[in-house]
Every structure is written in C-alpha cells, then in structure tokens.
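Running this now, will post back.
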Amino acid sequence: MLRLGSVPYLVGRPLDLGLEADEGVRYERRVPARLVQGLRGGELDVALVSAIELFRQPGARPVRGLAVAGRGEVDSVQVFLRRPLDQVRRLALDPSSRAAAALVQVLLAEREGGPPEYLEVPLGTDPREADADAWLRIGDRALEETWLEGLAHWNPSAAWTRSTGLPFVFATWLVTEGAAVGPHLASLHAAAERGVAARRALAEEAAPVLGLPAEDVTRYLVEQCVFTLGDEMGAALQLYGERARALGLASQGLGRFLEVPDGAPCRG
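Update: finished.
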C-alpha cells in the first residue's frame, strides 16, 4: 500500500484525479507544509509538495514530467501589497508553501536597497494579520483576495519567468528514499492525463463551491497553471535550487528523476 498525500487545493486535482480510488494507494490531503512533515516523519511515501523540499530532504526524488507550475501569472500565489514593492520593509510569509516563500526570497535578494525583513508566521496563522507591509498567500484563499477583493499584488511566478525565461515549478510528486513507488509511477501519470483532460470540468465544478467566478477559475486552471513539463522542468528546478542554496535556503542539489519503466502496466 502506497501512502500518498496531496494538497487540499483546486490546483492539485489535475495531478491526483482518481488516485483516491486506486486500491494500491492510501490517499489523504494536507496543506503542503503538513505533507512535508508527513514525508519527513515517515507517515507518507510520496506527496505533492513544495519544490524547495527537493533540495532539503536527503534521498528524496521527484517524478519526471509532473508538476504544479506556471509560465507567467499564477493567481494562487501572490504577494499582496500595502505599499509599493520597492517600499516594502517587512513581508509576512504564508507558512503553507515553502517553495513560494523561498521563491520570494530568491527574487528579492538583489532588490535595490536590499531585501525586506521576512516574518515567518506559525502554521495556521493568517499572514494578512501580521504587522507587515505585505504578505505572501497561496492556494484558494489567494484567488479570493485577487479576484473578489481586488487587492494590490505582485506575482512572483511572473517575475521568475520574466527574469529567467523558464517556468516556475511550485510543487512536484516527491518520493522518499526507499519507497516502493515503481509500480505506481504509471498511475501517477495516468491520473495527470485524466486530470489535465478534465480541467474545464474541474473548474466549473469548483467555482460555485469556492464562491469564485467560473470564468476566472477556468482561466486559472486551464491557461495559467501547467501540469506536465519536458526538459525545462529540470532546468527550472536546477536554477531555483542553485539560487536557493546561495541564500542558505536549501542544502543539496537536485536528485535524479524517477521515470515510468518501459512497458510498465498502469494501475489507475
């Protein structure tokens, strides 16, 4: 039985669609930071986690080609501003996503005048309530603050792509060292194939549940988010890891990708 965890956000559905019905999988949902705790604590074998964890957990390996990524604006990851970005002196980080938090620090490391002070609020605490000039927010709540409240914001994914020409990989399937994931790799790819094909239906179903405009949800899931990547996945992760390590935000290089063996049957 493969112990697998995914995120409780709409953005995870195109990668995990149908996995909860796989007889060989024990499936659960947690926020990214809790998924990381599950991997580190031995409670999970594989999880859809923040990409920065690739560079922090010894022996952990990503699954090739599958990711939550963006090649520009991604509205579910925003830095909301109480003043212009170049005037921000204190920025509260959403503890739910370590990849986004590290990305913000990478991008602002060489800001004219120096980077802001970062406030790491405890998990479960609202970064918007912090005494700060700006706050990082991820997930469905970020969509609400962007579309329903129209708050001023800066989009780190768009900034990354403008400066590097590469997509930004927010999350990947991460497999712990020694986990018997081989028989399930084809199932992960099959889930992504199902989920990517069903993005419009997923968006239309989610919009009324989330209380968000269907047109915006569809644009987000179909146009902004990218779930399958080729060779640029490795290039993007490599550069991100190098920049994160230079700031002391990561401790190791990119591990070798896991791939579906030729002729492997699909369990999904």
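Confidence is low (pLDDT under 50) at residues 262-268. More later if anyone needs it.
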